[in-house]
Amino acid sequence: MEIFKRRHVPGTAPGTLAATEPPAEPIRARYVEYRLDTLVESDLVDPKEMPEATPELTQWLDVEGHDVGLITALGQRLSIHPLALEDVINVGQRTKSEDFESAIFVVLDHFFIDGDNGAVGKEQISLVVQPDVVLSVRERRSDLFEPIRARLRLGKPRIRGGGTGYLAYALIDTVVDHIFPVLESIGDSMEDIEASLLDRPDPEDVAALHELRSQLLVIRKSVWPLRDMLSGLYRSSEDFFNDETRLYLRDVVDHATMAVDIVETLREMVSSLMDLYLSSVSNRMNEIMKVLTIIATIFIPLSFVAGLYGMNFDPSVSPLNMPELGWYWGYPFALGVMAVVALGLLVFFRRRGWL
Amino acid sequence: MEIFKRRHVPGTAPGTLAATEPPAEPIRARYVEYRLDTLVESDLVDPKEMPEATPELTQWLDVEGHDVGLITALGQRLSIHPLALEDVINVGQRTKSEDFESAIFVVLDHFFIDGDNGAVGKEQISLVVQPDVVLSVRERRSDLFEPIRARLRLGKPRIRGGGTGYLAYALIDTVVDHIFPVLESIGDSMEDIEASLLDRPDPEDVAALHELRSQLLVIRKSVWPLRDMLSGLYRSSEDFFNDETRLYLRDVVDHATMAVDIVETLREMVSSLMDLYLSSVSNRMNEIMKVLTIIATIFIPLSFVAGLYGMNFDPSVSPLNMPELGWYWGYPFALGVMAVVALGLLVFFRRRGWL
Amino acid sequence: MEIFKRRHVPGTAPGTLAATEPPAEPIRARYVEYRLDTLVESDLVDPKEMPEATPELTQWLDVEGHDVGLITALGQRLSIHPLALEDVINVGQRTKSEDFESAIFVVLDHFFIDGDNGAVGKEQISLVVQPDVVLSVRERRSDLFEPIRARLRLGKPRIRGGGTGYLAYALIDTVVDHIFPVLESIGDSMEDIEASLLDRPDPEDVAALHELRSQLLVIRKSVWPLRDMLSGLYRSSEDFFNDETRLYLRDVVDHATMAVDIVETLREMVSSLMDLYLSSVSNRMNEIMKVLTIIATIFIPLSFVAGLYGMNFDPSVSPLNMPELGWYWGYPFALGVMAVVALGLLVFFRRRGWL
Amino acid sequence: MEIFKRRHVPGTAPGTLAATEPPAEPIRARYVEYRLDTLVESDLVDPKEMPEATPELTQWLDVEGHDVGLITALGQRLSIHPLALEDVINVGQRTKSEDFESAIFVVLDHFFIDGDNGAVGKEQISLVVQPDVVLSVRERRSDLFEPIRARLRLGKPRIRGGGTGYLAYALIDTVVDHIFPVLESIGDSMEDIEASLLDRPDPEDVAALHELRSQLLVIRKSVWPLRDMLSGLYRSSEDFFNDETRLYLRDVVDHATMAVDIVETLREMVSSLMDLYLSSVSNRMNEIMKVLTIIATIFIPLSFVAGLYGMNFDPSVSPLNMPELGWYWGYPFALGVMAVVALGLLVFFRRRGWL
Amino acid sequence: MEIFKRRHVPGTAPGTLAATEPPAEPIRARYVEYRLDTLVESDLVDPKEMPEATPELTQWLDVEGHDVGLITALGQRLSIHPLALEDVINVGQRTKSEDFESAIFVVLDHFFIDGDNGAVGKEQISLVVQPDVVLSVRERRSDLFEPIRARLRLGKPRIRGGGTGYLAYALIDTVVDHIFPVLESIGDSMEDIEASLLDRPDPEDVAALHELRSQLLVIRKSVWPLRDMLSGLYRSSEDFFNDETRLYLRDVVDHATMAVDIVETLREMVSSLMDLYLSSVSNRMNEIMKVLTIIATIFIPLSFVAGLYGMNFDPSVSPLNMPELGWYWGYPFALGVMAVVALGLLVFFRRRGWL
């Protein structure tokens, strides 16, 4: 995962919308307008063709993909502050909510499991919340907000009558809730690694732990400011969020706090697993070295004895020159010496508790 | 212990009560209603049959086990906010207290020693406190709140006349106090491990320390927010807690702080023990390797000497070719050389302090 | 040192005074009553026989040892809140000060060097401060407060006329000041260990460092809340402490802060010493292994050469079969080869800086 | 990078401007004065010749290089407080903003990649912001503020009409934005090192990680106080910054926070890489030692057997003396024993999972 | 450096001035009295003979060395609070400023390089600031405050007319500024160690790092509370410090913050160097062990082959008994086998990247 944002060149004027590479996939925009009793949905080919606001109607434009021209046009159409537009384009912004007189600008990260190998992906979700319009811009195509549209279609008064405030809450709540499956997947990977470590430590485990640690660092960078962001929203939101919606916002704060807690707990567990790995590896290695060294150590004196009687001193010259070679029991005696030495060492090692 | 909560699918409406698997054991509910001079107790087969509130009476329904239908019915009967109900069902919530106009909702964790092997278990205790009714929902069957019922039966005016505020305090106090035996059990395990480490370090100890560390992490995640929860209760509780009860609440805050202190202290001790283990292991290993290497090192030069005189240079060809083999004192001389080398090395090793 | 408090069974009513084992030593109580011009001192056999309060007189009862009956009686006699009484009995409470309308309840820990082996002991000191009476309860017999009695006897107006506020200050100041000799003793132990480490590291040092670390953890748990306790006293104390006494209280806060600073500094030094130990040990071990391995490595090629010429190829069969054995300079040649190899290796090792 | 500032001798009067060594390169000063409709630019040979202020005009003097005489002269010309002048000369000051009645004094660090080897350089940027004049002093020649001059030339009303407040913002924004390419370069280096570590760990990597760690420490020391500095600016700036400019200042705060986040994340990643390195190295080493030791261990018993039958016991003396040497199948038998031992050890090692 | 203060016996009355050992050097006191137009300087043999205060005159008594009698006399002469006097005597106090109605009492530490070996020394500087008198007490003889006297003699109105407030500022500023050369010296030592580590790690380096770490711990303990002390001064100082002097005090706060930053940065660098040392040592050691083990491993199979053909199986008994010994190409064949084995191992090691 990238930890750096798409940046403009230092020194350029703030709000400059740099030309980005055209999005890989064509941009898709889904438009919904609703009030308590009606709901109109359409797929806009050109998001710039967003209908005019109608009194009493809540409008929601959900854009997938980035394009400078499009964002500029939407910015003019909805009178969005250039600093906010810049942050929509330059993805990789911090999680934050900002208050521009007539609108609230919210940035947060959507984490997801990317593909089958459990890699964690991240995209920036930008929300511009105005009294009658919500604009949500996402980096990639997905059905992230489909459940919200489904709930709108069902027509429950809580969401249909909640205005842009409740809609913004529902979008944020959805994004925040998507952190938990990602954290669970990380937790599952850690349990696998823990089992592997306790069974037989593998160098691959360290690389995997390092990867999890990096993922947790990136998630943490995004999740820590969530509470600040949400309480900023709380404070700046008198016009947008009614008392009931505020109860729900408090529930999101609670989820964000829980996510922070889990991230911190997982981080500590990664540390603990790293320690476990290191001590496992060193235990295994010590075990190996010990057995091998003991084998070597036992045979070294034996080989010495064998070498001793392999010397060629001439017994015929002197009765002192290796008379053992001429003894009747010489060979059994030498074997016996070796057996005694080997047994002695084994007993010594066992007494010391090394065996 | 699980660190993830039972979650709803991201994007579902808040307050949606997902169907959970039916509880393993049948649900049991104990009902008590009391005032200063009377007390009626019953076991409700169907908790939905809870009697209507009577003026002046305090009602307490204590439910063991979860069931969506039951919780929904109780929620309607007692007008509980759907967000609170959702958190009762989706166990694994953070320790927290929330203020819903007409009720206080409290979540906290009950830790217990699970079985004989010292494993630490956790269940979520949810309390809904209303002016005349207290609903407590627990995950599993146990006699956790039996002492409270016993005190109610005894009829002391402090608890009989304290209303739902004092009852809520008594329940929270009981749950908080159950943390200490668990921490003590962890502390005892650590003392056992410490004794083992100082005596003879064992790879099992590391796995045990890792387990304790994980347990402490989970307990800490639950205990840290206790103080926040309790002070939230304090602030939001003017209607429920009178001045005398507040003195008692302060006492619980004190216990919670003490639990946090002990958890942090135990965590540091686990780190210290881990260090102790690592240095013990490396000391033992070094000890072994040193002795073995010294044995090997002493015999290597000796074997060389033996090998030297095992060479087959032909003494008959030249007087320079291993004349020692023909010496009268040849063999004793060779043994002497070996003895001198071995002694020299021993002295050298001892001088250097390696022996 | 114990990190767990004496606890009541979870679920019992607050303020329940559990029967504790009778104190090992008989309880002793010293009673003093004084004003500017008079002082009466007595040893109460039965602390319950404490005299009635006389206007203008300050009464101080100093009890050594715990006994449920006694504490209950004193509690009734002095109208002490049951929660405070419970904390007097269940020693192991956090350092704290609590405000009960008519009294201040203070708990803090007295640390002392226990016996000759430098073990650190801890006892709980409980103070109940009322407008005219101070009750101090300690766990064990000692002359801890004798200097205060001596100062009272001397009759200086500052202490004789300071009322219970100044007396409470003097008692707290004495207990806090006793932390410093304990910390100094720990500091001295650390200097001994440091000297030992720099000279010759010893596995005993690690166990000693671990012990010091545990002691510092326990002291820290007690010392950290001291400042909170004292500022709580400050805030709650308008009735008890006059402006002059408050200046002295500020001085105790200063000492408490200093104790915290020293504890933290000592803790970091223990960490630093642990690192020093580990690198010392590994340096020493590396040194040993290096020398031994070098000896082995030099002799291994030499032994190979010796083994070579110990082969029994038959020179009579072929002129190619070990003709060296029949050379006139064969043996000196072989010795020369060995010398060259050994010298070559020595030069190589020295060039690489391994010798 | 230097972490110490150029200091005056302790005890000298505050505001003393010590003679510094003359700058290596001649001082260059660029002067711009502008209002909405006009802009005059010039290169001042002698910065002291700065034109007098004209009503309605914003003046900006951008000085590259330090010289005590010059700074003193400018200080008198612009009535700058001596403490501010002292900090302009003694570079290495903390990031800070200070309010002197008639001016705001801002110090911050400009980080840049110095040369091709990726070394990180640092220079102090000092800004003196007065109602109509901005003085910027930099340590070295560069085009750091050229983009600002370009934007001024373009004549956009936002910058031309923004006065000294907007100009100060633009300068600070430019300097802060320059931190990101530096952090990205560090991040790239870390990715290179990570790839190297996972492939084949190299001692050079540790030195490189240590270098990155030092760089991050220096950047962190400079970046942490940025937020304080900016919020100080915010508070003290009512006269200089209008509401629109404040929105932009908030954006810089956001960037500063992001920089802090990235620095902290990179620091944790360096730690994680260090761990990865250590475990990689120890894994590789263990791998090597294991294979080598196993080879040695297998041959040691084989050599013993060979040594055994190299003994010279005289078979003619006794039928017990190495009768194997005279067996018909003696040699194949010995080889067979060796093969069995070697295979047995291989099987044993594989069973234990060491191979 | 000592981390413990000179203490009184626990339980003694506050403000008791314990008899200390007489100072090693005779006490020296320098007296200055000045106003805008006059300055009188003298060396007082007996500091008790300090002249009476004259209206409009600022008096400064600078005492070097401690003596209970002298401090008591000065205390009475200047009506200093006994708690302040106690802290002047019992050196080793925390950095702090305390407000006694008619005076401000300031304690801070002066750090200096002690002797040529770079050891860091510490002395306590106590200041008593009254409306017309400043008393400064230092532990040792030095010219610490000589530059202040020189500035007074020069007669600049800022210091001559600044009263005791400006004088106190100047003294504190001088002491704080002396921290930087000490920190620089530590930084230089660390650079030396870093160079040594990258070149060839030396066990001495660890002891040196440990020493630097201890020094930084002691300095940190003293520097951390500086900001608190100075802001306490700020708050309590309305009577002593005018607005201009306050600007200067803010500058000292800035220096103190910078000192804290540098101390923390240096502490992290020590940690990083420790890591660098450990990995350097282990790299070097691994390098050595690897080469040595490879040499050993190559020769072990060769020696086995040599040992094989040193066996004494009797070729005359059976054609199977070591027929190689009788081959024409036997010896070259054996040498060839050895060469092949050695080359094979070398190739294997190189392929694996171990060579």
Features:
homopentamer; 355 residues; alpha+beta; Beta Polymerase, domain 2; Methane Monooxygenase Hydroxylase, Chain G, domain 1; 2 domains; seven-stranded mixed β-sheet; 7 strands
Q: How does the SSE layout of this entry go?
A:
Five copies of one chain form a homopentamer.
Chain A: E1 28-34, E2 39-44, E3 58-64, H1 68-78, H2 82-89, E4 96-100, E5 103-114, E6 119-129, E7 133-138, H3 146-154, H4 157-160, H5 163-177, H6 179-199, H7 203-235, H8 243-308, H9 330-351
Parallel strand pairs in A: 3-7
Antiparallel strand pairs in A: 1-2, 1-3, 4-5, 5-6, 6-7
Helix pairs in contact in A: 1-2, 5-8, 6-7, 6-8, 7-8, 8-9
Describe this structure in words.
5 copies of one chain form a homopentamer. The first copy, chain A, has 355 residues and is of the alpha+beta class. Helices cover 53% and strands 15% of the residues of chain A. The first copy, chain A, has 9 helices and 7 strands, in the order βββααββββααααααα. Chain A has a 7-stranded mixed β-sheet, with helices on both faces. The radius of gyration of chain A is 36 Å and the shape is rod-shaped. Chains A and B meet through helix 3, helix 5, helix 6 and helix 8 of A and strand 4, helix 7, helix 8 and helix 9 of B.
